Amino acid sequence: MMKRTFFVILALFLMLLLDIQISEASILIKEYNITFWITSDMSVKENVIFTFKEPIDKNVINYLAVGDITSLKVSNGEKFLDYTLTKIGSETKIGIYVPEGTQKLEMNFTVENLVFTKDSVYAFFVTLKTPLPENMNIFVYLPAGYYLYRHAVYPENYKILTDGEKIYVHWSLSKPENVAINLKFYRTFQDYTFFVAFVTSLAFIVVILYLVLYYREKTKRAFERSFSEDERKVLQVLLKEKIIMQNKLEKQLGFSRAKMTRVVKKLEAKGLIEKERVGRTNRLFYKKV
């Protein structure tokens, strides 16, 4: 509730501040297109295009916008036009010297303080007092990696689109008077490169571990298949005991002395055990491999 109240107050504040208009009421505008590109530093780049119903006479057209304008360029499609900037409180009046026969006017500039933030949610507000065009198109592009917050977009009858990198909102209006644009957005996962690298690395580690365990188990099974059943029984005891007397092992496994001697000789030849003579028997040692 507090967040909504905050954004409503901001919207009302900006509606009082922003007044964009062409002062010459006699000039008829066929189409008025305005595009807002919200950048990652939350400044806003604007592109404004007026298409007049008929070529106009030599004139001075005034365009009034809120905020400090920078990087302004004005053209009529054939050449860049001269202009003046007059600061009026929080607004900037652009006086454009338009040559005779102009039927299209385009402006590009950057403006600050149209985006506000609270609790990681960004809000873009702007109110346009339009020069009563027959048709008007408004585009608002979000920065790359940002998404609309709970479809908090005004006015209604909008389209949410994407250019493959950025999400943008489009309004198509017919003979609008005043248009208040209000949308909220938020940032998604900030570093996709790191995320992709992390997931890839994790997957690689899992695959390597699987292969190590698989081949270790495969090698173990192959190793075990290279021994007879009697040899495996002796090895199992030695793996547990490490050191054991041969005569004790004979009794434990129920082997005859001759059988035990044969098995010990084979395991000794494979380098798995060592023996040490102790009286009439042997002390057997397991050798790690």
Structure description:
With 289 residues, the protein is an alpha+beta fold. The protein folds into three domains: 2-188, tricorn interacting facor f3 domain (Immunoglobulin-like, Sandwich); 189-226; 228-289, Winged helix-like DNA-binding domain superfamily/Winged helix DNA-binding domain (Arc Repressor Mutant, subunit A), CATH 1.10.10.10. It has helices at residues 2-17, 192-225, 229-241, 246-253, 257-269, and strands at 29-38, 44-56, 59-66, 69-75, 83-88, 91-98, 102-111, 115-118, 121-129, 135-141, 146-154, 158-162, 167-174, 178-187, 243-245, 273-278, 281-286. It has a seven-stranded mixed sheet with strand order 4-7-2-1-10-13-12, with no helix packed on it. The protein has a four-stranded antiparallel sheet with strand order 8-9-14-11, covered by helices on one side. Strands 3-6-5 form a three-stranded antiparallel sheet, with no helix packed on it. Strand 1 (29-38) and strand 2 (44-56) form a beta hairpin. The radius of gyration is 41 Å and the shape is rod-shaped. Residues 6-21 have low confidence and may be disordered.
Number of strands: 17
For the termini, the CA-CA separation is: 71 Å
Helix content: 25-40%
Shape: rod-shaped
Q: What Rg, in angstroms, do the CA atoms define?
A: 41 Å
CATH topology label of the largest domain: Immunoglobulin-like
CATH superfamily of the largest domain: tricorn interacting facor f3 domain
CATH architecture of the largest domain: Sandwich
Q: What is the topology, as strand order, of the major beta sheet?
A: 4-7-2-1-10-13-12
What is the strand content?
Answer: 35-45%
Largest β sheet strand count, sense and barrel closure: 7 strands, mixed
Counting H and I runs of at least 4 residues, what is the number of helices?
Answer: 5
* Unreliable segments of 5+ consecutive residues: 6-21
Which class of the largest domain in CATH terms? Mainly Beta
- Sheet/helix structural class: alpha+beta
The H/E string reads HEEEEEEEEEEEEEEHHEHHEE
Total number of distinct structural domains: 3
